[in-house]
Request: fold
Amino acid sequence: MSDDWFSSKLIPEQENHPEEKTTATEAAEAITRPVVNLDDPRGDICQLYGLLMDALLDLRHQTEPLLALLQAIEDLPQPEFTAAQPSKQPQDKLWKGLSDFGHIWYDVYYRSGSWKSDAEKTSGSKRDALRDEHARTAEFEARLFMAGLAHIPIGWGYEAIEKALGKDALLDFEIPAVAEWLVVCGQRFLQGAKEDEKTYAAGQSGGVQRAATKALNAMHEANAKDV
Reply:
């Protein structure tokens, strides 16, 4: 995906006025307009999310503008749904919280849990590309969490750490992913380890609780050694 391609999808009008700077709000209004005008805005929103997810991973030097764009989309007021039938009009705010963005992200980039078996079957340049995508995915999960966007939970970071510590860890994939989480959220994890983030772990269920507890214990031990 080229920068020109994404720009044309994001703001088609800009092609006629390249000298004009577009604000994040203007970009958000432009890129969401087609969804608002669909017969089923809520049902078809995944098309927009797919475009944004591709951009987040592919346009590495546009990270900050893309995060600003996501924030601007979240901040958009509820639109008027002129094309949608009353039964298809969202009852809650369409953009607030980027509803289902996190679920779609997980399904796409973790292939509903099968990513590890997919990675184990690859080698050479294809494996390198998958590893790079996996690390990049972790980076953006961490950045979305820190920005408070799309309801990405800190639990995903704890799970990444817990999996990297596991006996069956795919180390060449999971260590780089953890590294991205630590680069972005290191201070947040350190705070959790120092405060023994029991309130978070206790509020989770099943695997997430075990992951958070194991990750916190490991970070607490590492922090104690440094004292």
Observations:
- Residues 111-227 form one domain.
- The chain has two domains: 1-99, 111-227.
- Residues 11-18 have pLDDT under 50 and may be disordered.
